[in-house]
Amino acid sequence: MKKTLALALAVVMSLGLLAGCGGKETKDPANNGGSSSGGSSQSQQGGGSDASDPTIPEGGTVGVCIYKFDDAFMTTYRNSLQEILESKGYKVTVVDGNNDQAKQNEQINTFITQKVDALIINPVMTSAADQIIDTVKNAGIPTVLINREPTAEQMSAYDKLVYVGCNAAQSGTFQGELILETANQGDINGDGVINYIMIQGDPENIDAQLRTEYSVKALTDAGKEVKQLNLTRGDWDRNRGQEIAANDLAQFGDQIEVIFCNNDDMAIGALQAIKQAGRTVNKDIYLVGVDALAAALEEVKNGNMTGTVLNDAVGQATAAVAEMEKLLGGATYASGEQSVYVDYVKVTPENVGDFMK
Ligand code: GAL
Predict the structure, then answer these.
(1) Dihedral angle at the C-alpha atoms of 273, 279, 282, 288, nearest 10 degrees?
(2) Ligand 1 atom at minimal distance to the Cα of residue 171
(3) Which of 68, 167, 263 to mutate to test the pocket of ligand 1 (most atoms within 8 A of CB)?
(4) pLDDT bracket for residue 58 (50, 70, 90)
(5) Model confidence pLDDT, tens digit, residues 319-340
(6) Which atom of ligand 1 is nearest to the CA of 74?
């Protein structure tokens, strides 16, 4: 019974995805900064070949590897993944890589020894993608990579592999647009130059690279002159965000007009430093993040953050499970069609209520 239900679901999902797909070209995130409108729809690339004889294992087992549990956004994401998988009857084990690639490699090997039916992996290091892909390919385990995108070439080594994530350039563009939508378009002192600091995530991560680049590009594309006072890596961490912002506020003082943070957790840390420095967001400084963590939505609503960008954890978890089921059903992916993107959405004080539970 469960098997029939799962099969029906898989077929309905495949049809839905195909209907919403419209084409199979794969976007190059670096060449696509997103549009200003946003939207909650999923843009699907790839999609896999149709499974002619899907056989979803009853009570199938899924191993989920998360790069580290102590990451605010990935906590929401993994909880969502677990909930969706369990609600569909899968036996799920979620493991913490502790930000240690060697440890994660062992965890993947353990799942392989246990003969899990599928793997969902959030790699610790993007640079480890080749090794991970090689390992799961040799074991013949259908695998969904999430959150840290390898190159299309790396993924093409294994046709039972798909990546689910977002186009990080789009989130950067939205951050820049949030600044352009403020009363003085980010130029608080009216001197014709937007002075900013950038608090970066883990620079090895493409999300950090593209958000850093595209947030500023949105300003310069709009003809604005910008000046970067400082750029510091904060590794997605709230305490680091606070320390970095405190140091920069002490060093550059009123010169700082905008604080770009690659994610919300660092922005919430930066907000503490802003308050301690006696500055006021949206009056004498602007502050933007990405993720739409519950705490950040609260701050946007209260006017303590200029805005954020929804990094749709539930949407990505849903898509990851849908892709996993397609793989379990026998689907394979052609080279260049192995990435599935979920849209980011810009969050402003006007629409923040739509995102609060
Ligand atoms: C990003 C997210 C960050 C952090 C990172 C981990 O997409 O915005 O908050 O979770 O992934 O790779």
Answers:
(1) -20
(2) 8
(3) 263
(4) low
(5) 999 999 999 999 999 999 999 9
(6) 10
Amino acid identity at 221? D
Sign of CA dihedral 12, 29, 168, 154: positive
Q: How far apart are CA 352 and CA 357, in angstroms?
A: 10
Q: For residue 28, what are its two tokens? A: 């190059």
Q: Are 269 and 332 in contact (CB under 8 A)?
A: no
Instruction: Tell which atom from ligand 1 comes closest to the C-alpha of 77.
Output: 10
Q: What is the pLDDT of residue 357?
A: 81
Testing ligand 1's pocket by substitution, the residue of 75, 121, 207 carrying the most ligand atoms inside 8 A of its CB is 207
Question: Which ligand 1 atom is at minimum distance from the Cα of 71?
Answer: 10
- The whole-model pTM stands at 0.85
Question: Ligand 1: which of 122, 238, 291 to mutate, most ligand atoms within 8 Å of CB?
Answer: 291
108: its two tokens: 């993947």
pLDDT one-digit tens code per residue, 223-236 = 999 999 999 999 99
| Domains defined along the chain, listed by start | 2-166+311-344 (3.40.50.2300), 168-310 (3.40.50.2300)
Residues with CB under 6 A from ligand 1: 71, 73-74, 147-148, 201, 205, 207, 236, 263, 290-291, 311
Which ligand 1 atom is the nearest neighbour of the CA of 290?
8
